[in-house]
Specification:
With about 325 residues, the protein is mostly beta strands. It is built from two helices and 23 strands.
Length: about 325
C-alpha cells in the first residue's frame, strides 16, 4: 500500500474469535501477551492471537501482526533507518524529530507528501462512514476531483497561535451506527521503539461547546487496529490512554484536575518513556503545569514501532454536536527541544 493511502482506525482488541487451527500450549517465553476478556483467556504467540480452550490447547483467532514487519518495511541507508514503500520500493527517511506550523500551505494537498512529511488524512463521517468510502474520498481530494463532503481538515487563516496559519479540523457528530467520527491529519514516517523517550508538544484552540474525544494518537500501524498512546478528553480534562488490550489509563488526580479552557489557545506537552512493562512513564503538562506523572505500560508490545502520529479530531463521539479544533506549532521528537 502506498504511503499516502495508509489510514488508522479505532482499536478493538479481543472477543471476535472464529474457529481455527489448534496448537499445544507454548512455553511461557513464547507468549507475548496473556489477556482475560469476558471470561476467556487469550494469548499472543508469534503475532497470532489464540483463545485458550483447555489447559494445554490454544485455538487460533486472528493474526494481529507480521513478526517480520521490520525487515519487510525498514532498511538501513547511509546509517539511517528508512521506510520502504511496499508498492514502489522507494525509500523515505524516518523521522525522530518532526515539527509543523502550517505556514505556506493553502490547502490540505499542500501538506501531503514526503517533503512536508504528512502522509494521510482521515475524514470519517456520516457521509463517508466506512473505510472504503473515506479512502475513496481522500483519493479524489488528493487528485483534485472534489472538495470535502462534510468533515474538513485544512490549513486556515481564521486564527493561528504563531504565524498566520493553523490547521482547522471540523467533524460532524457520528451517526448512532458509528463508533466515532474523524477529521485528522497523520504522518507515518516516525520511528520510536522500546526504551525511547518521545516528547510531544502542540497548541490547541477548542471553541466553546465543540469538544472532540481525542487530540493526538501515537500509533503502531504494523499491529492490527493501530494500537498506541493517545491524549483524550474526559469530563473536560486531558488524560492519556494506551488503546490496547485492557486499555490502561493515566488520569489527573481528581482533587486537582485542571479543565481544558475553551475559546483560547492551550498548550499540551507530553513525555512518554516507551515500554511494554510497568517501567514506562507518562508525563503531561498543560500550559506549563504538570498534570500527570505516572509509571506504567506505554507500548503495546516490546517489538512495536510507533510510526504514526495523528493530530486533530482523531475521534469524535461526544453527543449530537459537531466538533471543531484548531492545531498549531506541533512538535514530536526524541528529545525535549
Amino acid at each position: 500500500m502506498a504511503i499516502v493511502l495508509i489510514v488508522g482506525v479505532a482499536v478493538f482488541f479481543a472477543g471476535r474469535w472464529q474457529p481455527g487451527r489448534s496448537i499445544p500450549m507454548p512455553d511461557k517465553s513464547q507468549v507475548e501477551l496473556s489477556l482475560e476478556h469476558e471470561g476467556t483467556t487469550y494469548k499472543l504467540v508469534n503475532g497470532d492471537l489464540y483463545r485458550v480452550t483447555a489447559p494445554d490447547q490454544l485455538v487460533f483467532v486472528e493474526k494481529l501482526y507480521d513478526t517480520n514487519f521490520r525487515t519487510t518495511n525498514y532498511a538501513q541507508k547511509d546509517g539511517l533507518i528508512v521506510r520502504v514503500d511496499s508498492d514502489t520500493g522507494k525509500m523515505y527517511p524516518t523521522r525522530r524529530h518532526f515539527e509543523e506550523g502550517f505556514e505556506n500551505a493553502e490547502r490540505i494537498t499542500d501538506l501531503i507528501g514526503p517533503d512536508r512529511g504528512w502522509t494521510t488524512f482521515t475524514l470519517q463521517s456520516v457521509k463517508t462512514p466506512t473505510i472504503r468510502e473515506y479512502n475513496q474520498l481522500r483519493g479524489r481530494i488528493l487528485r483534485g476531483e472534489c472538495d470535502f463532503a462534510d468533515n474538513r481538515v485544512q490549513p486556515t487563516l481564521k486564527m493561528a497561535h504563531s504565524g498566520i496559519r493553523s490547521l482547522e479540523c471540523y467533524s460532524v457528530a457520528p451517526s448512532p451506527k458509528m463508533v466515532c467520527a474523524k477529521a485528522s491529519l497523520s504522518t507515518e514516517l516516525l520511528y520510536f521503539v522500546k526504551g525511547d523517550d518521545v516528547w510531544f508538544s502542540g497548541w490547541y484552540f477548542i471553541p466553546e461547546g465543540e469538544v472532540p474525544f481525542t487530540l493526538m494518537d501515537l500509533e503502531s500501524t504494523w499491529i492490527k487496529e493501530h494500537p498506541g498512546m493517545r491524549i483524550m478528553i474526559e469530563d473536560g480534562a486531558a488524560m492519556f490512554e494506551l488503546k490496547w488490550a485492557n486499555k490502561p489509563k493515566y488520569r489527573q488526580p481528581k482533587a486537582t484536575r485542571v479543565p481544558i479552557p475553551a475559546g483560547r489557545w492551550v498548550n499540551f506537552k507530553a513525555c512518554l518513556h516507551l515500554s511494554e512493562a510497568i517501567d514506562g512513564r507518562v508525563e503531561l503538562w498543560q500550559d506549563g503545569v504538570k498534570l500527570i506523572d505516572e509509571h506504567g505500560q506505554t507500548l503495546p508490545l516490546a517489538s512495536a514501532v510507533y510510526d504514526s502520529m495523528e493530530i486533530g479530531i482523531s475521534a469524535h463521539s461526544f453527543g449530537p454536536n459537531a466538533a471543531t479544533i484548531y492545531v498549531d506549532d506541533v512538535t514530536i521528537s526524541d528529545k525535549d527541544r
